[in-house]
Amino acid sequence: MTGNPAQVSAYRPPRHPAPIDLDLSGGERSTDCARLEDLLAAIDADTLRCYPKSAALEQAYAQHVGQPFDRVYATAGADEAIDRLCRAFVSPGGNVVCPWPCFEMIPRYVALAGGELRAVEWAAGEFPVSRLLEAVDARTQLVVIVTPSNPTGGVATEADIERVAGAVPHATVLVDLAYGEFADGDLTATALRFPNVVVTRTLSKAWGLAGLRVGFALGQPDRLALLRAAGGPYSVSGPALAVASRALECGAQAQHEHVVEVRRERVRLEQQAHSLGWSAEPSQGNFVLWRGRGPQWLRDGLAGLGIGVRIFPDTPALTDAVRITCPGEPVRFRRLETAVASVLAPQAVLFDMDGVLADVSQSYRAAIVETARSFGIELSAGDVEAEKLRGDANDDWALTHRLVAARGGTATLAEVTARFEALYQGTNGEPGFRARERLIPSRAFLERLRMRVRTGIVTGRPRQDAFRFLRDHGIEALFDVVVCREDAPLKPDPAPLRLALDCLSEPDHLCERAWYVGDTPDDITAARKASLVPLAIAPPGADRVTMDPKLLAVGAARALDTVDSLEELLP
Known about the structure:
By secondary structure, the protein is an alpha/beta fold. It has four domains: 34-250, Aspartate Aminotransferase, domain 2; 264-340, Aspartate Aminotransferase, domain 1 (Alpha-Beta Complex), CATH 3.90.1150; 348-355 and 437-569, HAD superfamily/HAD-like (Rossmann fold); 363-436. The strands form five sheets. The chain has a seven-stranded mixed beta sheet, with helices on both faces. Strands 18-17-14-19-20-21 form a six-stranded parallel beta sheet, with helices on both faces. A four-stranded antiparallel beta sheet has the order 9-10-13-12, covered by helices on one side. Helix 3 packs parallel to helix 10, helix 4 (77-89) runs parallel beside helix 5 and helix 4 (77-89) packs across helix 9 (221-229).
């Protein structure tokens, strides 16, 4: 990185395209810090009309952390405090010594200030105080200590801070305590005994106010004066200042309870990691860093269940890692625990039939086109695929009728169904389109899979047609359960998938963790609603360039290259 903004990349953490409703990929709190109406009551007309004044909030926060008022400066998040530190104390020709990996904005702020970043690896274990000091020289302008460290959760001790601050009197020491409330001890007072230390803190994490963008720099008044001069005078808005002040008044108990719950969840996550064959770094943040085989699959699988976590594919020391933020709320945490187990230790794998196990491009799909043609309506295979991708398309009879009607056809559903069945089943001794169907996955794959997990089929096919295909291809015995059209409502209703799990369950051994492989948005939607990990596969002949992104956007965890490749994801 250089000091040219055009050459500093924007902060864009890798995200999965699936809809996420429980986002644990950042450090935000996932529960409210106080009742919204209590917080908003702090905003009046003058708050909006006048330029903001931060003194009241700085006074309140100074009291909260036990520091003099003149040693607190409110900023637009701790990010802005760090940015101002770099602008105030870092210049071209100077260097910044920083443990790495850590908060990803720090290298960007250093680069924008024109400084050289000297990274000292700290991906695990104790704080590397000796190696950090070895990297310091006469040109060092800033030394960084992030504790608890993001993303590992590791911590520096009081002795570490004392040693670093005392060894670099010519430099400023940044002690970033953004996650400090979750740690075993508060290092603020220790750090501020040294005149060259600036501490940053925030209301974004434990206080659950990341959207306000309110943080603080704490330090000697002369250093804070340089920070104030390093940017504009009104960086924190009036409403943000008012709401933050009210939160300090009425949210302390909720904040404490949240921290207690997060600490409990941290222990549980560490235990779960070990039980599933992963390792977990000891953490004092509001997250746990898991390490193991297949971090991207864990990220993808959880995204398929609506849960976001963070991976680090571009950070060499963390390519095997997944950071999971603790929700801080029991119901959400149980959902997280169950989802992780479903991704990494499934009890069953369920399949749709058409387009997944059975190639129906020349049977069902052809029957749709030919049925429409018999009523004077021309359809292409692309028309059928596009309608399938729109959803609510699990019933091929109804789908055909809909396509015909949309193009001016007047045939009734009963007439369309009868014509479709005649083409598919065959008439007058002529074989129907069903004779063209072939098995998509290899039998060897299905046999291996059956030895590892329970297996099943959930299909919208009539029972007679489903079992005929299984018998014709000699694979009926490879599935423990087959749920058909007659058994439950059609997908995207989750009922047939839930029925399959019920059928696989025993009185003393419930089947709750499963994957589902499907080829339509209806399949993916049903799986997510039933809390099964949804895997997408494009049916034979489909345009994957178009189809895969759409199925991922609906919520598929992964778009498989082949059905057999699912085996690579199993533990």
